[in-house]
Amino acid sequence: xxxxxxxxxxxxxxxxxxxxxxxxxxxxxxxxxxxxxxxxxxxxxxxxxxxxxxxxxxxxxxxxxxxxxxxxxxxxxxxxxxxxxxxxxxxxxxxxxxxxxxxxxxxxxxxxxxxxxxxxxxxxxxxxxxxxxxxxxxxxxxxxxxxxxxxxxxxxxxxxxxxxxxxxxxxxxxxxxxxxxxxxxxxxxxxxxxxxxxxxxxxxxxxxxxxxxxxxxxxxxxxxxxxxxxxxxxxxxxxxxxxxxxxxxxxxxxxxxxxxxxxxxxxxxxxxxxxxxxxxxxxxxxxxxxxxxxxxxxxxxxxxxxxxxxxxxxxxxxxxxxxxxxxxxxx
Amino acid sequence: xxxxxxxxxxxxxxxxxxxxxxxxxxxxxxxxxxxxxxxxxxxxxxxxxxxxxxxxxxxxxxxxxxxxxxxxxxxxxxxxxxxxxxxxxxxxxxxxxxxxxxxxxxxxxxxxxxxxxxxxxxxxxxxxxxxxxxxxxxxxxxxxxxxxxxxxxxxxxxxxxxxxxxxxxxxxxxxxxxxxxxxxxxxxxxxxxxxxxxxxxxxxxxxxxxxxxxxxxxxxxxxxxxxxxxxxxxxxxxxxxxxxxxxxxxxxxxxxxxxxxxxxxxxxxxxxxxxxxxxxxxxxxxxxxxxxxxxxxxxxxxxxxxxxxxxxxxxxxxxxxxxxxxxxxxxxxxxxxxxxxxxxxxxxxxxxxxxxxxxxxxxxxxxxxxxxxxxxxxxxxxxxxxxxxxxxxxxxxxxxxxxxxxxxxxxxxxxxxxxxxxxxxxxxxxxxxxxxxxxxxxxxxxxxxxxxxxxxxxxxxxxxxxxxxxxxxxxxxxx
Lengths: 331, 479
Prior knowledge:
- Chain A is an alpha+beta fold.
- Chain A has helices spanning 2-41, 43-50, 53-58, 63-81, 145-152, 162-165, 177-204, 217-230, 278-284, 294-308; strands at residues 83-89, 99-105, 118-124, 132-137, 232-238, 244-249, 254-259, 265-272, 275-276.
- In chain A, 45% of the residues lie in helices and 17% in strands.
- In chain B, the strands form 3 sheets. A 6-stranded antiparallel beta sheet of chain B has the order 4-5-6-7-3-8, with helices on both faces. Chain B has a 4-stranded mixed beta sheet with strand order 10-9-11-12, with no helix packed on it.
- Chain B: This is CHL4 family chromosome segregation protein.
- Chain B: Residues 319-374 are annotated as: Disordered.
């Protein structure tokens, strides 16, 4: 038995060793690449290279330095302007317009990381006025690029009849790509801000996603204080779009509020065991209506409400009645 | 049981959740048989939860006295409380064994008084959850009716799905013609809400159908609603609309068509009407649907453009590395994917690992005679396909139907006027068609330089008509 298992075991050991070493090599290679490109794009090193006597006389710089410089410049533009353009060639041999104009939108999320860039690729029509059309894009489906295109890149309708032409204003409208990109960027940034705002509120309430449990105990204690004051047990965005957020209180009330693109609480509905809770609804859309301060407004509201309603029937501990799961409410 | 009811009157109500099908019917055993052991136990435990409904409750000793006292025939003694039954299933869960014993226990023991429609629906939805590629789905787009000229909010086009309201509306639309049972559930593994509709033409709330009718697949319609996007997925194939002549018959096909026609009306609201539009995509995998007609960024950038969708063309602007020196996989791992769940990514990563040595082998075989040509071809394949057809892409077409309206040989242009007569239908099928085409291109069987773009999966469709090497947009689904 030993004779057969021993070589196998040693082989396995060797295999795992080899794979560990390979992973280590890969890591080091990556690190080397990162460091070398960081060095090549740092101003100090670049200045040193540029002022080196051999380069000042010959005038030719290593292509590595040149490409790093170009990359650095494009990164600066992406960070500073957030919407940048680039050319792209459609590799399809049958494309009408293989030369595409790419628009890249970079959105920085609240933790300082950049999201994956969003792209819109446009082509020019083969007509005499060379109008722009959206060819491909990576915009999420809930931001309707078709509508934005209709609005900002209008194209004349194919059926032209003389008498209606003058009366229809969009036939003469100019295409406005910068406006399209502005609007699109605003929608994308607003989406990320909405998500960030909800995530920030969740953190303040002490709700962490899985994997983030190992927060410092000090912050979590401070956080639960807010949660205790407001009595909120759940706060989640409704669907991916994060236009609405759903709230749940410990006493069985559920609520939902709508977040506007500028970060205001637009509308709020709270329903408890005894119907609508107008008091809380009013508190949510009162004051400066900012989503960031909604917890303060709610905790103040709860304080005043508990002062007013000390004699109200105590239904707070009743659980929510189970719902008919055949028609489950999935909000 | 329902059959003993004395008075039966036609109603417009939906079929009740607690309509019981006798446990002895063989079709039920078949329905249960498609579940795994774990799924069967999970479902039983779910039925035994505290907040469960009377329609999924097991038979207990106290119920037995009311109904027929045929206790002797069953090998499973009845329990006194729900808690006792749950312990039995928890114990089964911990133990190893076949699924047969669980199913027998359910059908002959604790639910010997019959399986309700609600339970049947839960079984079917659980099956979909466990087998996201076990059912053919067609993607349909919801289009706002008559608002083209009006300027509206950029995000206003989505109907907000509230399932119970939707089902109420649907019931109101179809109730004069179709009697149906509805069940809605949110899938745990995918961001989808699945609605299961069972249709029948009986006007009675407790119809006298045989048990086989209730498990008849042709009477079951699935709808799946993805989050935040103007698409719905349905198990009804869109070709049902062709048979309009037999509108008065009540076969299952007509019933399905009635329900299908009612869906957009049920989603509409006053001043906001929707119609359904075909999107030429029918696939078996829900993941593919979510990737090609879903809420994420991959709807309109496939094939050569998939490098943009997956964000593998360049990194964040804070990354000092040149994009040409970083492998696409690295960008994928570093990039924060907002739609893909980490589990899925991990799976694909594993698959990629498993796949790569095989591919290297093939390369080494082929490249032995011309390494430069092979390298050029590989670069061309990457440029044409992007990352579609690789294991990292989550879209996989199981079938691609193409109708070519061009003459097969272009040099014979003498009969140019009869171009429309040339029709060539191609059908590719397999587990992943685009992967196969990519492989063929890598091997040089298909020339990447002249390959039309529909072969790279760029259009994201499973059915297309091609004229002059390009997809003709008979449906205005792509922008």
